[in-house]
Amino acid sequence: MIATAARPFHEAGPDLAGKYRSTRALTEALAAPLSESDATIQSMEDASPAKWHLAHVTWFWETFLLRDHLDGYALYNDDWPFVFNSYYEAEGERIARFARGMLSRPTVQEILDWRAHVDAAMRPLFQREELAPLIELGFAHEQQHQELLLTDIKHALSRNPLGAAMWEGTPPSSTSRERGWQEHPGGIALIGHDGDGFAFDCEGPRHRVLLEPFALADTLVTNAEWSAFIADGGYDNAALWLSDGWGWVQESRIASPDYWRAGEHFTLQGWQERDPHAPVTHISYYEADAFATWADARLPTEFEWEAIARGQQPDEAQAHDPAAGNQLDHAGPVAPTGTGDLFGDCWQFTRSAYLPYPRFEPASGAVGEYNGKFMSGQFVLKGASCATVRGHSRASYRNFFYPHQRWQFTGLRLAKDI
Predict the structure, then answer these.
(1) Which of 166, 180, 346, 368 could form a disulfide with 268 if both were Cys (CB 3.0 to 4.6 A apart)?
(2) Angle at 43 between CA 38 and CA 48, to 5 degrees
(3) Contact yes or no for 382/399 (Cβ under 8 A)
(4) Contact 200/221 with Cβ under 8 angstroms?
(5) Per-block average pLDDT, block size 10, for the chain (418 residues)?
(6) pTM, full prediction
(7) To which H or E segment does residue 395 belong?
(8) What's the rounded Cα separation, in Å, for the pair 400 and 284?
């Protein structure tokens, strides 16, 4: 998901210093319930330890803002860039991703001390207008890692046989919603970011796409529907699956979404009774495509999804009570609730490969490495999840994952031809 190259920033943006403080505070608040052991473990290579996320986003600010733009700034620790760089080849050698869970040192407190040092050093940079695009990029980057911190620790806690919870309580319940369809007449659609405000480079340039008439479901697929798919032998019927997907199901012995067991699923509040009306989450592209085939429908293209989403403003779709488990703007329990909104609940798979738009050019320098170079073998997801920071997503936003990955809050919304 990590993507760290920006489009131009416009002067009408929010107060940078205030947004910086709130962004940094949320990261630390999300990690606050974790013990030192919780924050250190790494349950799989796709996931990173919580304290690594705390450190990596701080490395970003120190490397790309303070080191390069604050005269006389000296690195807090000369050895830490090696362990907290991620994929920036231009920034040199780094620890292997699978080894991040071996970092018993530095401690969480040492990382928090580093964060405080960097926060203090950043203050004079907010007055420099020419740095606004890079600072906005830093916000978006840290927000992505806030979501990753939650999904990564959920995976780690789920592997604990004690059913460890990050927060106490019970997730909110959902209500049954009858599915309707929003029809689109087709025609030429403008796709991609319109240049107003921040966006990653992969969201543009804006370009024309020809759409055939289609309809997009106004609800997400639910746990109850997925249970019916399972009961009907969905995981045993090769005719429903793409070839690679069927091979993945057989080799990995997949028989349900991740975090499912009899009548329950694992949440950040531990094992809970599975809500039949809540959106199904933690499914792969392969599973989403197989379900759509079983349901006599298909996955939408990213262009179809965006064409419908142009009529919805993310800020309106996200303006729900955070206690109800919608998109993240607080340090507390998160869970999908099935509102039907395009933005929120879970990331929605499309059938579109993650590829460059016409005339795409990656941003220059090291910060341009995280989008263009990953345009191979992945699929685009749209919307946002309950773990996505409120206001982070938009109609043109392109999340992307490999087809077998499902530790994120991934789900699906059906489409059909008309």
Answers:
(1) 166
(2) 75
(3) yes
(4) no
(5) 32 73 96 97 97 98 97 97 90 93 97 98 96 95 97 97 92 88 96 92 95 97 98 98 98 98 95 96 98 98 96 46 46 76 93 96 75 89 95 95 97 97
(6) 0.91
(7) none
(8) 12
